[in-house]
Every structure is written in C-alpha cells, then in structure tokens.
Amino acid sequence: MFVGIDIGGTSIKYGLVTLEGQIVSKGMMPTRYEPDELLVDLESVIEAYQADSKQEILGVGISAPGTIKPNGYMVTAGAIKPMYGVNLKERLEALVDLPVNVINDGNAVAIAEHWLGNAIGIANYICVVLGTGMGGGIVINHQLYSGAHGMAGEFGYMVTQDLPSDPLADIEPKSLNFTASVINGICVAYNNALQGMEDSSHEATMDAREVISRAKQGDEIALSVMSAFYEKISVGLLNLVGVFDPEIVIIGGGISANEDFIKALRESFKAIQRRHASVEFLMDKTIAEIKPAKLTNDAGLLGAVYQIQSVLGLVN
C-alpha cells in the first residue's frame, strides 16, 4: 500500500492506494500554509493509515504546486508561499520513517494518465493542465521529464504575444498563465468585456462553464472571449508540438471534462495549423491529436503514488 497526497492551495486530498492504483480509502482537509502546521497534518494522515492498514505502507507520494527539485526541495510552492525553500521530502521522512517523493502537481497529472488514463502505452506525450494557470508535464520514452531543477512543464511561462513597448515593463501578463488560463483567459476577460456593455443582459461570473454555455447559446461577448481563448491556447500548443513532437496532447484540469470545450479547442488547433504553411503540410501526418484527460480529481494523488513506486523500483 501507498499513501497518496495532493496538496492544493485550498485543500489537501489524500488516499490509500494499492500497487495497481486502486484507491481503497480517501479524504480531504483544508490546507494550512505554515510549514510546521502542514507537516503535522501530513504526519497525522500517514500515521492514521499506518495504524489502520492491514498491509504495510511502503511509501508516500506527494503532489504539490511549484518548482520542486528531485530531492524534494521546494523552490516555489504556488500560493503556499511559506513553503518556499522547505525540503518537504526530508522533513516528512524524518517524521514518518517512510520513503517520500514529492513532485509538481502538473507532472503528477501527466504521469497518472500514463498509468491509468488516456496515455496508457504512449511513449511520448505532453499533458497541459488548465486552471488558475497553465501547467502540465512532459513524458519522454515512458519517463516523466522534470528538467534539471524540477521546473519542466511550466507551459504557462511561455510568452506568445507582442511585448510591451516599454523595455522595462513586466512581460508576465503576456504569458499563457495570464492569457490562456481558465480564470484570467475566460472569466476575467469575459467580466472585463461586460463592463463596456451598458445593455448586457448577463452578470459577471467566475465560472468558466457559464461562459462556455453562454457562447454555445450565441452570446456575442462570450463567443468573442472564447474564440480569443482558444486561439491563444492553440498557439501555445503549436509551439509545444513543434518542440516535442508528441504522439498525443492531453488536456487536463476541470475544464477538460467539458465536451464542448474539447471540441472547440480541437477545431481551433486545426485552424491555427492551417495558417502555418510548414505545419499545414504535416497535418494528419505528424501533428499530435488532442485528447481530454481521463482521470479527474484523483489524478494528482495517483500520479504521486506512481512516482514513488518508480523511485522504489516497483514500476518500469
């Protein structure tokens, strides 16, 4: 048995997972940001499983936001800023006397799809996770590629728009984390557009599903926002496909479960390919197919468990 833990900015999901990837029990608790408090919470979860489980706990896999070095050192931790500079692996191993592995949450989703999702048997693919930002993971020759410092898969750092004329201006607002994330790229963009429409019959929303629904119903503002959003993602995907030549591109995050979204993204991606002469020649020959992620809320903890199994030599 293994303990899988998925640390998010709001809550921590955890579960007891078999070698084959079956979750036999799971739970959730609020995320406390202070390192000592967070470690107490993680220790209590693991010790409870150790006490109750009829089988030996072999290790702990943790999925967490941010740039995480292979040794478990958290260079960053997303919104959990007090965890910056903390070696979560070392500190937790000292408390629970078990092997611990910590990986980035987007990387965890990517490798979980290889284990139990829509990338089973696929040697080379990328997984793009859309949420408050754009993250993901890269799998090369069946192995998760995390980069030299654990930063690989931060697709949202890409800048695909013209830079500000001011040479000293911050260019991060031009990055895909801002322009092609679900929150900024859809919800904030839609609400900003509404402000200029005195006679708009729709209220502001922070639910991307609502904007997608309104676009489907013919709302011109929603249609415009979604068209721009699909185009920005498609440009990013085109860059990734050109660099990595994946067999497939998996789209993760809650929005990936929306069939209308996936259908529209596929159409937009093909339209962008047709506008690039060299790429257009390769259409239907080498350009990767877009697929939605199969695993949903459990992907993070399952991917973390797969990776600890890999570290322990229990999977190829």
From TrEMBL:
<dbReference type="InterPro" id="IPR000600">
    <property type="entry name" value="ROK"/>
</dbReference>
<comment type="similarity">
    <text>Belongs to the ROK (NagC/XylR) family.</text>
</comment>
<dbReference type="Pfam" id="PF00480">
    <property type="entry name" value="ROK"/>
</dbReference>
<protein>
    <submittedName>
        <fullName>ROK family protein</fullName>
    </submittedName>
</protein>
<dbReference type="InterPro" id="IPR043129">
    <property type="entry name" value="ATPase_NBD"/>
</dbReference>
